[in-house]
Amino acid sequence: MASLIIRMRDGVAYEVLDQNRSASNATLCLHGFTGSAASWGFLHDDMENTRLIQVSLLGHGGTDSPQSVRRYAMSQQLADLAEILDQLKLHKVNILGYSMGGRIALSFAAHYPERVNKLLLESTSPGLRNLKERLARLKHDHQLAQKIRRDGLLAFVDFWENIPLFASQKSLPADQLTQLRKERLKANPLGLARSIEGIGTGSQPSMWQALKQIKQPALFICGALDGKFCKIAECMQQELAFSQVAIAEHAGHTVHVEQPHFFGKIVSEFILAHD
Length: 275
Prior knowledge:
The chain has helices at residues 74-87, 100-111, 131-151, 153-160, 174-185, 189-199, 227-239, 255-258, 260-272; strands spanning 2-7, 13-19, 26-30, 51-55, 93-98, 116-122, 218-223, 243-248. Strands 1-2-4-3-5-6-7-8 form an 8-stranded mixed sheet, with helices on both faces. Helix 3 crosses helix 4 (153-160) and helix 3 runs antiparallel to helix 6 (189-199). It is an alpha/beta fold. The longest helix has 21 residues, at 131-151.
């Protein structure tokens, strides 16, 4: 696996892991909040026939954490991903995203449709439908960013691990929980705070109206224990002509963590299937 540093025109450096470079198709993998490119390491065994381009998003992993919150805006990060693909000489890829990474993946497919072959979204949403919802979420996101700055990374990770969204992770083996915690504690506090403020659900433009324009085959993945995001997946599926929903039993928000073999199998089958 090749570990790369890819620098943008403004000097911002991205950490990129590039696996199976000889494969005939490529998949761009985008992690969730507090994750990194390494979050997708488990896919290597299930996807030997696919080139995996694993990107650490702004403020995460080995990628830079710019000071300016504007640098984290959706439009900026989409342009960065296009530049990364250009530097890797990849015109068209599949794109896989989880949660925050899923929101970015969906937006990339809408803004750069000629560059996306298939779209795979795990436990994510197109954003919020109206201004009132966005303003409420913006306030919440700002408070969360302030919590990171005020209390520090360790206290924030303690809090984050215990939010209801991740309740189903409590049944994971101790060593797996320890590994998840280690990854979260590697985060840059500045990067996390700016990421919440710059590309949180409240900050990003709503994509609900754009769904009908997306023509790529799409797979929505959710866990049966995560009713909210399964409902969102089903609503998105109704808007996209060529889409399907896969529900993982006995999993919550983090299907790729809680049911990695199920996740790897359905993702690989979807990518390698003929349209």
